[in-house]
Amino acid sequence: MSEFYRLIKSKNEPQMIPFLDIFGGVYLFAALYYHCSSLSTSVTKYIFIPYVAYIMLTFIIQLYAKRPDPIKCWAYSLLGQFYIALPFALLNFIAFPGTYTLYTPWLLMSFFIFIWTNDTGAFLVGITIGHHRLFERISPKKSWEGFVGGLIFSLIAAWVFSLFYDNFSLIQWLGLSLTISISSTFGDLCESLLKRTIHIKDSGHILPGHGGLLDRFDSVLLAAPAAYIYIQIFG
């Protein structure tokens, strides 16, 4: 979230209060973690009150800030919540997939492994036989061949998971891997669109040779909501 708001600042857009927005995003994650993992309902029903107060404060602050374009300040503050904080917070529903269930590490682990195998397969197949551009306007290096290769690698990983974890059937595992692989590709493309709009190459420099944390976790930002929907409906 820090990288995201810094990117917005680099575009010389109206300034928000990044510290407050980052706090709101971190609190949303922590609140959903407590909500999903706690067996006590007496506290969880109050846990989201501070976050609702943060949303209200985000709007009220602009009354006193006297900035020329408060609408953009509201929009960028809330975009960080919906684009970054909410997807990561939804991972709690994958780690605790049922009502008052125990921590389920194998399901959360599969989420990230499907993303990694998809990225690895797409890269290996893309550099080997990739010729037809997937979305040249946004990401010139991605190819349809790489996209299909990533799906195949992810399906193989799903088959391996089905051998060790029978909580899901093979069909459910395959469906989950396809859902995560396709949505993670869209997540990657959306972050590429964000950077292309701002005219930058990397979201940060915290990882030499790899860019920023937002570059490393861009796939999660759409894969997490998609996986949450899939698990709630089919899991």
Automatic annotation (TrEMBL):
- The species this protein belongs to is Coprobacter secundus subsp. similis
Q: Which Pfam families match?
A: CTP_transf_1
Tell me the pathway.
Answer: Phospholipid metabolism; CDP-diacylglycerol biosynthesis; CDP-diacylglycerol from sn-glycerol 3-phosphate: step 3/3; Lipid metabolism
Please state the Enzyme Commission number of this protein: 2.7.7.41
GO molecular function list: phosphatidate cytidylyltransferase activity
Query: What protein does this entry describe?
Result: Phosphatidate cytidylyltransferase
Matching PANTHER family = PHOSPHATIDATE CYTIDYLYLTRANSFERASE
Which reaction equations make up its catalytic activity? Answer: a 1,2-diacyl-sn-glycero-3-phosphate + CTP + H(+) = a CDP-1,2-diacyl-sn-glycerol + diphosphate
Which GO BP terms sit in this record?
Answer: CDP-diacylglycerol biosynthetic process
